[in-house]
Amino acid sequence: MLSRSRCAYRTLGRSLSAVSQANNVLVRQSVAGLHVCSQLVYRNARPCEFQPSANVFHIRYFKTSAVHRDEVVTVKTPAFAESVSEGDVRWEKAVGDSVNEDEVVCEIETDKTSVQVPAPAAGVIEELLVPDGGKVETGMPLFKLRKGAVPAKAAPSPAVEAPAAAPPSPPPPSAPTAMPPVPAVPPKAAQSKPVSAIKPTAPAPVPLTSAGRGENRVKMNRMRLRIAQRLKEAQTTCAMLTTFNEVDMGNIQDMRKIHKDAFLKKHNIKLGFMSAFVKAAAYALTDQPAVNAVIDDATKEIVYRDYVDISVAVSTPKGLVVPVIRNVETMNFADIEKTINALGEKARNNQIAVEDMDGGTFTISNGGVFGSMFGTPIINPPQSAILGMHGIFDRPVAINGKVEIRSMMYVALTYDHRLVDGREAVTFLRKIKAVVEDPRVLLLDM
């Protein structure tokens, strides 16, 4: 601590005792008639002497600001996309749970995707301001978080400590105040009745939820409700018609088998069949612009696009999402595979944003990954057509007058017959068939 003379210590006792609590103290002192050695003192360091000054007493000390622990903050609903106005809250944490910084506290399910709400800091959930499943809008308070707090440990149960406590001494006997118990009266014998007089009682009703026949009601989430609404709108608005064809997958399988290792080594991603169909669809949409167009019902106009943005349907535990691959006409197989892989990973991890699904001029749905053999897809409005892929199965087909076993896939094109005629739809599907069966068609531009 500060080195000083006994006289100066008596004179400055209270002031210097307060200063001694600081970490770093600079004292320059001189009292009238006394010359006192002043020092700059650091804890755990050697003092450094200064020359005394006359009739001046200065104290300068430093201290750092402490972090305000146990501060309660209110976390509000984050901003949604322009086309989303509200969502439903699904809580991941409860009151009293401890959370780390950026740990997900709840998810807000909107019409198109789910928005995760993380904790702004480590602490304990103080209060949930919205019930589970409640509706929220942008800026509404969600929950209160006590920063830096640690959940209190549960107090030991008194029942556990009871045996350890000494048994209380019995109270002193007192005069009886209660009436003596009345002896029980024996019940009367039941009057005998003839068997014919006894009416059979109705059997107990069987509960509706008997063993093995239970029911469980689950509220539909917003995404599923929105999907159902859009599909019904498509049936009501579009004049949907479906045309079919089959694709021989033998050549594309051979190409994949030959080049998959080199493709993986160069691009660090596997070569699949989806990139071939996406590229073939972009080529066919450029050749048949009506399939890439859309009807504007408000203005009664047909909107033609000079770009190709293909939506790829991805199944997630919460429902079907359709992230968009943009400007496919400028991509090669590697670019398409990388984009599909990135969007699919975001969708499965529930990190896909509304911006990833906005737009799209055409949709491809691959039911073949689930083993589908045949099906008719439904248009994804406001688009005008959708391509359905199905499973690859070995079937006998006629090749140059001979029956051969080939790997075949059925494909289906559902289109809005208000805009697309049958000739355009069939030509479009045959163009996809030609490109997938022989990718050299792309190089020759045929």
UniProtKB/TrEMBL annotation:
Indicate the principal place this protein occupies in or around the cell.
Answer: mitochondrion
User: Which cofactors go with this protein?
Assistant: (R)-lipoate
Which parts pass through the membrane? none
Q: Which UniProt keywords apply?
A: Acyltransferase, Lipoyl, Mitochondrion, Nucleus, Transferase, Transit peptide, Tricarboxylic acid cycle
Which superkingdom? Eukaryota
CDD domains linked to this entry: lipoyl_domain
Could you tell me the EC number(s) of this protein?
2.3.1.61
Q: MF terms per GO, please?
A: dihydrolipoyllysine-residue succinyltransferase activity
The record's subcellular locations are: Mitochondrion matrix; Nucleus
Q: Which Gene3D superfamilies match?
A: 2.40.50.100, Chloramphenicol acetyltransferase-like domain
Q: In which pathway does it act?
A: Amino-acid degradation; L-lysine degradation via saccharopine pathway; glutaryl-CoA from L-lysine: step 6/6
- Report the top EC class in one word: transferase
Where does this protein have compositionally biased stretches of type Pro residues? 165-186
GO terms for CC?
A: mitochondrial matrix; nucleus; oxoglutarate dehydrogenase complex
Matching InterPro entries, A to Z? 2-oxoA_DH_lipoyl-BS, 2-oxoacid_dehydrogenase, 2-oxoacid_DH_actylTfrase, Biotin_lipoyl, CAT-like_dom_sf, Single_hybrid_motif, SucB
Q: Where is this region: Disordered?
A: 159-212
Which GO terms of type biological process are on file? L-lysine catabolic process to acetyl-CoA via saccharopine; tricarboxylic acid cycle
Function according to Swiss-Prot or TrEMBL:
Dihydrolipoamide succinyltransferase (E2) component of the 2-oxoglutarate dehydrogenase complex. The 2-oxoglutarate dehydrogenase complex catalyzes the overall conversion of 2-oxoglutarate to succinyl-CoA and CO(2). The 2-oxoglutarate dehydrogenase complex is mainly active in the mitochondrion. A fraction of the 2-oxoglutarate dehydrogenase complex also localizes in the nucleus and is required for lysine succinylation of histones: associates with KAT2A on chromatin and provides succinyl-CoA to histone succinyltransferase KAT2A.
What protein name applies here?
Dihydrolipoyllysine-residue succinyltransferase component of 2-oxoglutarate dehydrogenase complex, mitochondrial
**Which organism does this sequence originate in?**
Cyclopterus lumpus (Lumpsucker)
Annotated gene: LOC117727542
